[in-house]
Amino acid sequence: MSLAALLVLADGRFPAGGHAHSGGAEAACKAGRIHDAATLEEFCRGRLHTAGLTAGALAAAAALGLDPAVLDAAADARTPSPVLRTAARRLGRQLLRAARATWPTAELDALAAAFPRGAHQPVVLGLTARAAGLGPLDAAHVAAYESVSGPATATVRLLGLDPFQASGVLARLAPELDSVSARAARAADRARREGPDALPAASSPLLDIAAQAHADWPVRLFAS
Fold it and tell me: 108-134 burial, b for 16+ CB within 10 Å, e for fewer?
């Protein structure tokens, strides 16, 4: 494992397209569910234990070497919102472009050929981690961190929230982030033995509903 590679992959400045997405925060801010640091923390905690856990397990499974086509189908089944499926594939396509330029491997080339319109982002993330010499727990950590760092950063822009407060939210969530990442990695290991049904399918219906409504807004700051 390369700690430097892990930092590069987790860096918000890595050109993977995540800056254009709020992880549901834009819709939550408009609805009043996020209006300060405390409500941002509640939102991020819920997202971490649902979308973050599921994405972390998919990424960890891909890093372990499970069939990416099978994992992509599993990701589709765990993403009931058509809008979020489209967003996940767009993010996956952008991440794959960055990954192939940064850590070129035949495995990433094969994924690009198999999914010209993009595979689900967590699956691409796991294969990218694998190409970078990282393990399944590392991939799970990056996925889990992305599930909360995106909304935290977006809320600074959406509400003018003090960035120090947003960073404090992420720091307070760190122990739970570690715990969720470990759960995701263990689930991926079970999936290697038992198949993709062993992967978590934690649901977040309000995120799905809000994403569909958000897509119809005539003016919005973030793509999702």
Answer: beebbeebeebbbbbbbbbbbbbbbeb
